[in-house]
Amino acid sequence: MPNQPINDTSNSIDNRTTRPISFILASTHTGTMILNRQDYTSNANGEYFGVGYQYLTTSEFDQHEINLALQLLRLRRQYYGDGVQALDCGANIGAHSIAWGNEMTHWGNVLSFEAQERIYYALAGNIAINNCFNVRALNVALGDDSQEKFLFIPKLDYNQHASFGSFELKPLARSEFIGQNIDYQHAEKIKVPLLSLDSLELQRLDFIKMDVEGMEEEVLKSGLNLIKRFKPIMLVEILKTGLQPVNNLLIPLGYRIFSQGINILAVHEQDPVLKHITVNSK
């Protein structure tokens, strides 16, 4: 029987369903990192920003903040011994978490929180690919869980450009434009567990980095018992929350507040690390 021509073109390139490639693997100063090449937008001055953008243009992300955090973690180990515990609240793809995990191999642990499911997948992948066995990640939103146990957040398009790290889980009075229009009322929503810091029931806490896009006050309030008990050092973004609400919470607890650009550094007056701080206090 002569050979018959094959007419099935279901697997041909011309008929294949195409898929955009947004998440990629990049070699960075942090390590091998999964990041989104669409993670960028520009501000009114035409300046581009985004975690992915910064990695792809400089091979690093906010290295000055990471260096500060590493210095503080080493100091906590110096004064309090091994077993240092750090929280990365708003971890994104893990720029801080991976650097901390590598630094604290054999002497410290990191607990990372990221509410955006797709970004969390990249975070978990980065933890695995960098062999950070002392880093654990949770796909949760942090905040007040006394009334509700879940948060419903708008679904973003991760194949279209936006500064995903600037996404506000809850709408603010003046929400930042991240590169995509977000309709908090009518957009398709994703159900995310809501967790308070106090519910973690930690046995030790040395350091908290918090970048939760306007929810900093709520998250701090959700962890007041932990903060009072362990007096951790805190690096808190105030770009959207503002300085005063953070001061009102932490200064009465005995914290000294130091300016760090869009962040504040809070160190308790009883912490021996305080004598190493040379930046301007507020």
TrEMBL record:
InterPro entries: FkbM_mtfrase, SAM-dependent_MTase, SAM-dependent_MTases_sf. It comes from Lonepinella koalarum. This is FkbM family methyltransferase. Keywords: Methyltransferase, Transferase. GO terms for biological process: methylation. PANTHER family: METHYLTRANSFERASE, FKBM FAMILY PROTEIN, SLL1173 PROTEIN. Residues 88-240 form the Methyltransferase FkbM domain. It holds the Pfam family Methyltransf_21. GO terms for molecular function: methyltransferase activity.
